[in-house]
Amino acid sequence: MDALKPAAVRPRARLARMTSRTEYLTMHVPARRGFVNITSEVERVVRASGVREGLVLVNAMHITASVFINDDEDGLHHDYEAWLEQLAPHAPTTRYRHNETGEDNADAHLKRQVMGREVVVAITAGALDFGPWERIFYGEFDGRRKKRVLVKVIGE
After folding, report:
1. Any idea what DSSP says for residue 26?
2. How many whole angstroms separate alpha carbon 149 and alpha carbon 133?
3. What is residue 126's predicted lDDT score, i.e. its pLDDT?
4. Rounded Cα gap, residues 125 and 86, in angstroms
5. For residue 142, which of 102, 98, 111 has the smallest C-alpha distance?
6. Model pTM score
7. What span, in angstroms and rounded, lies between the C-alpha atoms of 50 and 35?
8. In this structure, are residues 55 and 128 in contact, taking their beta carbons and an 8 Å threshold?
9. Residue 54, Cα to own-chain centre: how many angstroms?
10. In this structure, which topology does domain 25-155 adopt according to CATH?
11. How far apart (Å, rounded) are the C-alpha atoms in residues 72 and 36?
12. Residue-wise pLDDT tens for the chain (156 aa)?
């Protein structure tokens, strides 16, 4: 079947030594919500790792933030904001049992659940192996304070 034929197959290189690199990005979104393109920072960490073939994990380390892959287009970001606010509106905060603990961020937890915690991207020939419009974003749903994003590169 032609549909199952791989587009390109690279021969496996001889075994190299596995290596890894871990960095933490500090994020500070001054607004309650926002999306930040972190692709260039992830690319920087991949280059610094020296990994030519492997994987990079990018993980939001906070339960009210997200990391996801999509297009870097303002209209789409606006649509995400509107859609997420429809799914889990911030106000009235009394609608959420979690907010009875003194918090006002139950909606942020729900938005993070929808948008995801992390992404894994292949590294091929030392670069992120993306589709044409793919970029990595940090999504903030309860901002105004510093948070971290883990970037872990593994490969050879």
Report:
1. E
2. 22
3. 98
4. 42
5. 111
6. 0.89
7. 28
8. no
9. 17
10. Jelly Rolls (2.60.120)
11. 9
12. 455 555 565 655 566 689 999 999 999 999 999 999 999 999 999 999 999 999 999 999 999 999 999 999 999 999 999 999 999 999 999 999 999 999 999 999 999 999 999 999 999 999 999 999 999 999 999 999 999 999 999 999
Q: What pLDDT does 10 receive?
A: 61
Residue in the block written with tokens 């290189």:
13
Side-chain half-sphere CA neighbours of 63 within 13 A:
5
Q: Around Cβ 114, how many Cβ atoms within 10 Å?
A: 15
Nearest alpha carbon to residue 42 among 147, 148, 137, 139: 137
- Interatomic CA distance for residues 108 and 17, integer angstroms: 41
Contacts of 26 by beta carbon, 8 Å cutoff, 6+ apart: 146, 147, 148
Residue 116 to residue 147: CA distance in whole angstroms: 16
Eight-class DSSP state of 139 = E
Spatial contact of 134 and 64, defined as CB atoms under 8 Å apart: no
- The answer to whether the CB of 30 falls within 8 A of the CB of 132 is no
Read off the tokens for 139. 């999504």
Nearest to 88 by CA among 71, 64, 70, 69: 64
The Cα 70–Cα 32 span in angstroms is: 21
Task: Note whether 119 and 68 are within 8 A (CB).
Answer: yes
